[in-house]
Amino acid sequence: MSQTNHGLGGLKYDPTKKSRASEWNVLAALVLIILVFEGLNRLNGTSFLFNMRDNVDTLFNQQRLDIIILQVSITGIIALGVTQVIILGGIDLSAGSVVGATAMITMSFAQTALVNGAPNPKAVFGDWAMDLPVIVPIAVGLVCGTIAGMINGLLVAYTKIPPFIATLGMMVSARGVARWWSNGQPVSFPTESYGELANGDVLGKLTFGLFSWDGQNPAVVFVALAVLFHLIMIYTLYGKRSYAIGSNEAAARMSGINVDRHKVLVYTIAGMLAAAASVLLTSKNLTAQAGMGVMYELDAIAMAVIGGISLSGGRGSIVGTVLGAGIFSVIISGFTSIQLDAYYQEMVKGAIIVGAVVLDQWRQKGRVRG
Amino acid sequence: MTDIVLETRGLTKYYGGVQALEDANFILRAGEHVAVVGDNGAGKSTFVRQITGVEQRTAGQIFFDGRETNHAGPLEAREAGIETVFQTLALADDLDVPSNLFLGRELFKFRLGPFSWLDRKTMRERTLEALKTTAVKIPNVDNPIRNMSGGQRQCVAIARTAAFASKLVIMDEPTAALGVQETAQVENIIRGLKERGVPLVLVSHNLRQVIDLVDRIVVFRRGRIVASLNKGETDGNDIVSYITGVKGSEPAHG
Ligand SMILES: Nc1ncnc2c1ncn2[C@@H]1O[C@H](COP(=O)(O)OP(=O)(O)OP(=O)(O)O)[C@@H](O)[C@H]1O
Ligand SMILES: [Mg+2]
Hints:
The complex is a heterodimer of chains A (370) and B (254). With 370 residues, chain A is mostly helical. In chain A, the strands form two sheets. Chain A has a two-stranded antiparallel sheet. The radius of gyration of chain A is 22 Å and the shape is globular. In chain A, a hairpin with a 2-residue loop joins strand 1 and strand 2. Chain A has one domain: ABC transporter involved in vitamin B12 uptake, BtuC, CATH 1.10.3470. In chain A, helix 3 crosses helix 12 (296-306) and helix 4 (135-158) packs antiparallel against helix 11 (259-285). Chain A contains 14 helices and four strands. Chain B has a single domain (4-244), classed as Rossmann fold. In chain B, 32% of the residues lie in helices and 28% in strands. In chain B, helix 5 (150-164) packs parallel to helix 6 (180-196). Chain B has helices spanning 44-51, 74-80, 97-101, 120-132, 150-164, 180-196, 207-213, 236-244; strands spanning 4-15, 18-29, 33-38, 59-64, 67-69, 82-85, 108-110, 117-118, 168-172, 200-203, 216-221, 224-230. The two termini of chain B are 15 Å apart. The chains are: A mainly alpha (370), B alpha/beta (254). Chain A binds chain B through residues 6-13, 15, 232, 235-238, 240-241, 243-244, 246-248, 250-257, 262, 265, 314-315, 367, 369, and chain B through 54, 73-75, 78-79, 86, 88-95, 99, 103-106, 108, 112, 114-118, 120, 128, 131-132, 135-141, 146-147. The site of magnesium ion has 4 residues of chain B, from helix 1.
């Protein structure tokens, strides 16, 4: 009964024995890594996941989970965009700098006039830009991301500059914008509603208090965006075109897909996602600094690659990236939990990125066909 | 003159210094099946690429469906009614069979610009129907075609063309990678096109197949059309002598 003729032309094909999706491997790796850190912690009489202190009455180590989730969320939102760009066959090195530039510009429209009764010491603009409705800085931020992403897309699509170079240029320029904006000074003291964006309890509001998750709005936004783009990548023309272009650009062109226009769209969406991450990050920290987001692009790329997104395009999924983001953050927090020095952390981080790419190369070699 | 589907006048294509196609004059009439033969590098695929808008010609005119045409790209040619199986398959390796069949002309549940929702179920059903006509053996159409054999991929490309065939079908060496059974099946598809009255340009090295299937054989040599032979008035040896240059050193009208 297990051998069924589901195949065409009488070929045997057993649909119950589908080859396992690679996402399952990533999930297994995630669980394994958590277990390893739990074990390492237990050796020291501590715990990675669980609360070991008697004076706190929770099952899990809430503080650590919060950190992991926050880390996944902000960089993860960037990784959602980077994933789409990589599936398209490109790369986006500019995301971290776009976060920085967007942070400075957005925060300048989110400031409040009076701080403890005194005028805002970090004011960038005059009174007209103080205490604006929260929608204004959000819109400004998204426009910043859109512009940066669109420039990336236009460069890649119409000048035929390799994506690596085009987005490297944006990486440097956008960081320049971030530094120039307020001469390197931080922009601080946002309105209360802007601070609420990341620190509020949107889940509680949306479910009328049924579920409450105070201070974890970035995670809620990340999950919502991940679900949205998962659906888009699998069920809509946008996703189909992205995979088609990444897997065979010439074929996509020949099939009548407007490849150039689609590239601009994908890079623009990636820019908007980086901007969204920037808004949440500045809201979370209640300040914007020119150095915000440095190296985030590499973290995001690492998340995607760990999640099984192929750097040669055409393969991978949003689910993979979400899991990859989980692995990435668990490893970082895990190192902190076993008190590994930050230097070592960075070295190992680099090794993980290279390792993931090597793995991808191996996977592809296995597919070479005659 | 109204029954002419496709005509080229003085069609010429240079790649830098390479004169791949030189002054090709070719006529295809309604319902007619014509084979294009010639040695490797004779300019057959180049000829196909000019008619289908994949490349822009160096000189000459193309008339399709009664009008002079200037297809800027393969999509325009396809929208005008020219369906093509290219020699280098225009397939996306990481997509499954239905996605490839409907690449660039997806069906939708609802339209929302680039975020239009795909009607995957209908596309899958139509794909299975289209593939049945080719008798191709594919274990699972939901797998990426990267993992399929050359012949299976070829059949996907041919099924795509046959399924959407309207005014003109062009096939560039469709059976080159196929086994005996699959070749026979593709030949059946071609006969089906003939019955439906869909005109065909078939590029092939298989003279047996060509003599079997088409009404007229056009011979290319070194970028030029050197002969146009009606099926009843020629045979394998005759064709070979034109291909190799024993006969027909003067350019002919295709
Ligand atoms: N893009 C290109 N750039 C330069 N030269 C080209 C290009 N495409 C084709 N050629 C040359 O043009 C000539 C004709 O090539 P074409 O592909 O049309 O041959 P063909 O008749 O289809 O051969 P085959 O039977 O091997 O498919 C060849 O000499 C080839 O090397
Ligand atoms: Mg050829």
